[in-house]
Amino acid sequence: MSSTTGQTPESSASHTFPDLSGLIKAYDVRGVVPQELNADVARAIGAAFADVVVVPEAPAGQRPRAVIGNDMRPSGPELVAAFADGLAARGVDVTLIGLASTDGLYFASGSLGIPGAMFTASHNPAQYNGIKLCRAGARPVGQDSGLAQVRELASRYLALGVEAVESVAPGTIDEQDLLPEYAAFLRSLVDLSDIRPLKVVVDAGNGMGGFTAPAVLGTGAGLPELPLEIVPLYFELDGTFPNHEANPLEPENLRDLQAAVVEHGADIGLAFDGDADRCFVIDENGDPVSPSAITALVGLREVAREQAAGRPAPTVIHNLITSQVVPDLVGATGAKVVRTRVGHSFIKAEMAQHDAVFGGEHSAHYYFRDFFFADTGMLAAMHVLAALGGQQHPLSALAEIYQPYSASGEINSRVDDVPAARARVVQAYVTEQGAGPVTVDELDGLTVSHWDTTPQWWFNLRASNTEPLLRLNVEAADEDIMIKVRDDVLALVRLTEED
C-alpha cells in the first residue's frame, strides 16, 4: 500500500499547520467533500488515529489492528481507502467491513476488540461525509479522550506528509463481511420468534437501514424468518437522498412513512436516519411515538430482565430533556435512574461509569450495555416490536401508557444577545419566583422545575455551542399549562429592545 512521504511531524517546529478545527469537532469528524474532507485529509487522520489510539491500545506482542466501515455516500470508498492507507503506513493491520450502519461498525469494534472508524455524515446532506472514531470495544473517542490529539497530529501530517514507520512492517489490509454476525447478535438479544404477526413499514430514507433491516428483521443474512411482514420504503442505498433527508427528527421527513403506515394498515412504522443508529417509531394511526416513550418502554423491559436475573437495582440513564415519565416509571421499579447532559459522549460515559443496562435520549439514540454501551437504533426497534407483538393492543394504546404528559418539543430561538435573554428568564423564574417554589439546576443549560407542586411543569433552556440560539424544552402534566409556560418563556427569550 502506498503512503505519502515527507518530513516527520517532529521535525516541523517552525511550520504553519492547517486548521482542522472546523472539520474535527468535539465528538467526530464532519465536513463537505472535497473542500474540507478529501483523500489527503483522510490519510492524515488515519495516520494520526493510528499513533494516538490504535498503536497504544494494541496488546503487547500483537500487531495493532483497526476496523473501518462506511455508509452509502458516494465519497465513502475513496476516503476509506486513503484512511486505511494512513493506518497501514503507521504499521496498523486494517480490516474493511465495507457497507455498514454505524451500529454495525460498533459491533465490529466490540466483537473484534479493536478500534474502529465509521465513515458517515449521518443525516447531513449528500455533499457531506465524516468519521466516527472509537477505541476497542466501541468506546468513544471525543475531544477529551483522544480526538484533540488526533486533530493536532493530523494537521501536522497533512502539512508534512505521512511516513512509514521504519522499524515496523507496513500494515496489511483485508476485507471481512460481518453483517451476518451483526444480525445474529441482535437476534440473540431480543427474541421475536414467538410474537404475534406484525406488519411493519420501514422507511430507510435511502440510508443504511435499507441494508440492515432485511438482514436483521428478514432473511437477508440467512437467519430464520420472523413473524414480520416488512413493507420497505426507500431501501435503495443512495447517498444523494432523492426522496427526503435521512433525518427523522424533522417532521417533514416522516410524512411518507406516516402515510404508508395508514395506507397499508400496518401495525407500526420505523424510520431510520442515514447511518441507521437512530430509530423513530410511528403508531398504527400514523402518529409519532415520542423517543421519551420509547426510552421508558425499553428501559422497563431491560430493568425487568435484570431483575428476573437477580439484579434488583440496575441503572438506566436518560438525558435531562427526556420526559418526566422516564424517571417516574423506571424509578418506581426500584431501578436507579441517572440524569445526564445532552449528547452521546455524556451518555456513554455515564453508561460505562454506572454499568447501566440502558440509556435513552430525546433524539432517538438508544444505548445498551449488552451492545458495548453503544447506541443502536435497530436493537431499540426490536424491543418495541417485541413489546407490541407480545400483547394484543395496538401501538397507540401501548404508547399512551408512556406518554402521559404534554411536551413542547425542542424550540429554537435565534437571539442577538444569548446571555441577556437567559438572564431575563432567570430573573422571572428564579430570582422573583413569581410562579411559586421551583428547583433549579445548571447541569446543562438552565433547568427550572415546578414538578413537586401543582401545577406540574418544568423547562430547560440551553444555548447552542455553535450558533446564537437558545433551545427550549417544556413539559407539563396538563397541555394548557405547557402552552402557558412555553409561551411565557419564549416571550422573555425573544424580547427585543423595541418591545
- Main beta sheet, described? 6 strands, mixed
Domains, number: 4
Unreliable sequence segments = 1-8
The level-1 CATH class of the largest domain = Alpha Beta
Q: What is the general shape? A: globular
Rg measurement, Å: 24 Å
Q: Structural class, from secondary structure content?
A: alpha/beta
- Regarding quaternary structure, how should these chains be classified? single chain
**If strands are numbered along the chain, what order do they take across the biggest sheet?**
1-5-4-2-3-6
CATH architecture of the largest domain: 3-Layer(aba) Sandwich
CATH domain topology of the largest domain? Alpha-D-Glucose-1,6-Bisphosphate, Chain A, domain 3
Number of strands: 22
What's the mean pLDDT score? 94
β-strand amount? 15-25%
Distance between the termini: 65 Å
Helix amount: 25-40%
CATH homolog superfamily of the largest domain:
Alpha-D-Glucose-1,6-Bisphosphate, subunit A, domain 3
Number of distinct helices: 14
Family: Belongs to the phosphohexose mutase family.
Pfam families: PGM_PMM_I (PF02878), PGM_PMM_II (PF02879), PGM_PMM_III (PF02880), PGM_PMM_IV (PF00408)
Cofactor: Mg(2+)
Organism: Cellulomonas chengniuliangii
Give an account of the 3D structure:
By secondary structure, this protein is an alpha/beta fold. It has 4 domains: 9-177, Alpha-D-Glucose-1,6-Bisphosphate, Chain A, domain 3 (3-Layer(aba) Sandwich); 180-284, Alpha-D-Glucose-1,6-Bisphosphate, Chain A, domain 3; 291-400, Alpha-D-Glucose-1,6-Bisphosphate, subunit A, domain 3 (Alpha-D-Glucose-1,6-Bisphosphate, Chain A, domain 3); 407-493, 2-Layer Sandwich (TATA-Binding Protein). The chain has 14 helices and 22 strands. The strands form 4 sheets. It has a 6-stranded mixed sheet, sandwiched between helices. Strands 17, 18, 19, 20, 21 and 22 form a 6-stranded antiparallel sheet that branches. Helix 1 packs across helix 2 (76-89), helix 1 (39-57) crosses helix 4 and helix 8 packs across helix 11 (377-389). 50% of the residues are buried. Mean pLDDT is 94; it is low at 1-8. Residues 24-144, 181-286, 306-405 form the Alpha-D-phosphohexomutase alpha/beta/alpha domain.
